[in-house]
Amino acid sequence: MAVVQCVKCGNAGEAITDTLFLGRLEAEVKANVCKKCWKEWEAMRVMVINEYQINLGEESGRELVKKQMRSFLKLGETMDTSKLQQSYRPPQ
Ligand SMILES: [Zn+2]
C-alpha cells in the first residue's frame, strides 16, 4: 500500500490510486491527500455544486469547484466554507 502524508487530516494515510481527471492538479492532490480525505471531498463536492448552483458546463463553474476543492483539501487556497461545513455530514 502506498502511503501519503496528508495535509488535510495530518495523518499518513493510504494514497489515492484512482484516476481523478484533475488535469494539472492531479499530481498535487495525489502527493498531498489521502484516499479517505478524497472520499470526503467527493461527498462535499456534491454539496458545493448544489449550494452554489454551479453549472459544470461553464468554465467559471469548474473553476469555482476547483477552488473549493483546494480549500477543502488545504492545498493553499482559502475560502469561506463555514456555511457548507455547518451542514456537512460525513459519508456513512
Ligand atoms: Zn487525509
Short key terms for the protein model shown above:
single chain, 92 residues, mainly alpha, 2 strands, globular, binds zinc ion
What does the secondary structure layout of this molecule look like, with pairings?
Elements (H helix, E strand, L loop, with lengths): L2 E3 L6 E3 L11 H7 L2 H17 L7 H14 L9 H6 L5
Antiparallel strand pairs: 1-2
The structure holds zinc ion.
**Count of helical stretches:** 4
For the biggest sheet, the summary is: 2 strands, antiparallel
Distinct small molecules bound, one entry per kind:
zinc ion
Extended strand count: 2
- Look at the structure and give the mean pLDDT: 89
Give the class-level CATH name. Answer: Mainly Alpha
Count of domain modules? 1
Question: What would you say this structure looks like, in words?
Answer:
By secondary structure, the protein is mainly alpha-helical. It has one domain: Fe(II) trafficking protein YggX (YggX-like), CATH 1.10.3880. It has four helices and two strands; from the N terminus they run ββαααα. The protein has helices at 26-32, 35-51, 59-72, 82-87, and strands spanning 3-5, 12-14. It has a two-stranded antiparallel sheet with strand order 1-2. Helix 2 (35-51) crosses helix 3 (59-72). The longest helix has 17 residues, at 35-51. The radius of gyration is 13 Å and the shape is globular. The two termini are 23 Å apart. Bound molecules: zinc ion.
